[in-house]
Write a structure and sequence with these properties.
single chain; 510 residues; mainly beta; Methylamine Dehydrogenase, Chain H; 5-stranded antiparallel sheet; 4-stranded antiparallel sheet; repeat
Amino acid sequence: MASKAKMTEYERKRLENIRRNGEMMAALKIQSKASLLSQSAKRQRAVQSKSYKLSPEKKLKPDSPVVIRRSLRSRGLPPEGVDGVLSDDPPCETLKISSKEKVSPRVLGPLSMDDAQDGAGSNGTLISTLLSIDTKPHMSPPVKEEHAGGDVVKKESIEPRDSFDSERVKTEGFDEGIKEEKKGAVSLLDLGSMRLETDNIARVVPGRIMSVEFLPCTDLRMVVVGNKLGNVGFWNMDSKGGDDHHNGIHLYRPHTGPISGIVFQESSFSKIITSCYDGYIRMMDAEKEVFELVHHGDDGIFCLSRRPNDDKSLYFGEGLGGLTVFDDKMRKVSSQWFPHEDRINTIHFNPRNPNIMATASKDKTARIWDLRCVGSGQPRCLKMVSHNRAVNSAYFSPSGCSLATTSLDDHVGIHSGIDLEDNCMIPHDNQTGRWISKFRAIWGWGDAYLFIGNKKKGVDVISPAENRVVTTLKSSEMIAIPCRFDAHPHRVGMLAGGTGGGQVYVWTSS
């Protein structure tokens, strides 16, 4: 009784309310009804679960996609994560094919230009332009005089010099008795005169540019580029408008993957050959208005080249370290060997002697070969240059006396002298990541300068004589990183750079 006496008025009312509510719920039998509802719900869930498990079959949608996967091995790619290097390759893609109509996205056979067209405008303008070039005689490269203090010190053509002595290559190696010209190299170019004009900028293709090439013609300024999506774009810089309302740009999609190479028929500019990571090589024949199928295989093709003055053979890097020689006239493989342990990124021939070939590989080496000395089923290796990581490119200089290599180890190598024994590694940041094509240093219009992009949206100019970057081409007009370049073979100072966004910047010299 003492405890109740100590309770407050609020506590007494609370206890009274609890007691009254309990009596009311007991009178209405709410607790028993709630228990019955709970048991009924449990029985219903059990029945539903039992009926689902006893379902005799599972219906499939008639248009469910069939996923076809190509392994890294069949595509010529190493396992993911090897060496921790981000590859220039796209991730392995799956192709979804409808069960109603199984059509391969890779067309075997010719593909008409109309079907391959992927942009505005008509094919007629581009076709007539290319065919008109074919009817004109090919002009010789320009000759330029260099002055020092007002006196003419050198008159040099861009045309390659005399050929090598073939006998000495077989006995003594690369140099073949030609005097070293590195120290005496005179530039054909005034770097201070190079400019980037607004009219010389255009978005030619969608997506990342993989290959850039000038049409090697003296009377027309045309750039041909290939991107990651399989597009090939043509930009006629001399387009004057009129019916050509698309600013001289023609876009096609003859491939299904990254374009790895673009080469031209020296005897006919209306025939342009392209290769792709999907294992296909096609030739655009403007006269027939078709993209012909030249070659196809199961392995990816990562580079494409042609020997100077030879329209018969194609050389391309295929799969893991394979190099294939393809007879374009007979349309069959004439020879194949494996000069590297990993994919070949570039193939380049010495301008002074096309029998000398350089290859750059992801296996961290660049190698020089003599195609006339065949032993054990492959040419003789004259020289091997090693880097600490993958070699993106290896290009001979215009004189043929030097070799420039670009590597992911953040160096540009200059190799010159007798048998290319003089090696100099020039530091350069080559880490572009996976969204920008790997940097490749190219030679200009002589042995004096190399051009390579940088991540600050400029073009670094390297002097082999000084073994350093001597200047950087910059412009407020350049809003993207230029990664792949080509120097016009007949116009000194005309340099084209492609970006990860499909833009092309063309520098010119006044």
